Amino acid sequence: MQTTIRSTIRFDGVGLHSGAPSRAVIHPAAPGSGIVFRRVDLGPDAGDIPARWDLVDRSPLCTRLVNGRGADVATVEHIMAALVGCGVHNVLVEVTGPEIPIMDGSASVFVRAILAAGLRGSAAPVRALKVLRPIEVRRGDALARLSPHDTLVIGFSIDFEDAAIGRQRKLLNMSNGTFVRELSTSRTFCRRADVDAMLANGLARGGNPGENAVVFDGDRVLSPGGLRHADEPVRHKMLDALGDLGLAGLPILGHYEGRRAGHALTNDLLRALFADPAAYRIVECDADMAARLPGVGVHADEIPEVA
User: Fold this and answer.
1) Arithmetic mean of pLDDT over the chain
2) Which has the closest alpha carbon to 241: 266, 260, 213, 215?
């Protein structure tokens, strides 16, 4: 059963990198529409921007989509993670500005609003992308890999010199409401030196360590209130991965492994997957398969409370 939201949802904020005011309005959409972005500030000639892997302009800092008419929308990964993690298949996201608003740096604001609005089902069956054989891409010591599995599993490992981050590793089966319970509140993070460098290059102008990012400096957490989880950085990396994998256009049945991977490498992985027709098959989900997809049966009271 394909789903959409029951009512329109609106978010106002700023873009993390541009600092520009931004509004995102999520509208219900018909079965088979998929997730589509529309830059309403650019006018009707700009066209729609489908949430699709082959429209990604690869960047290490965020996920940016660009259509054939040059219309773009950046930092889509958190709202994509919220939609995928809540089991939403069809929506139109109207955006005013070059980026999706960063909100608190996690997906929790989006998730709360989606679950408060509720989902509306349809008779249209859900199709999924089933991984049939391993696909792997590497860049230096970074790796992203997809291998066969009967549901979506995400594993991630990171290793930072900063003692406050260090080495972190986590593995989660994303069935049902795991994303909402375990990952949705984890915020984007960076090192103090990275913030200084980005600001010097005109980036991260909408970043506020107290409101939408966790900043680390050696063995210190500079953000007021500290961490929401002891391993919040690796959890956020998994959140990003779910959002980026959502650009496959269908739920994925497979085991994703990321090792020091980022947005660009996950997109490279999807490109490698779709370049090999023998590595995947599109399947229509039966009731048992559909019940194992992210978001099925999740409730708003499963979202962790955050400061």
Assistant:
1) 93
2) 266
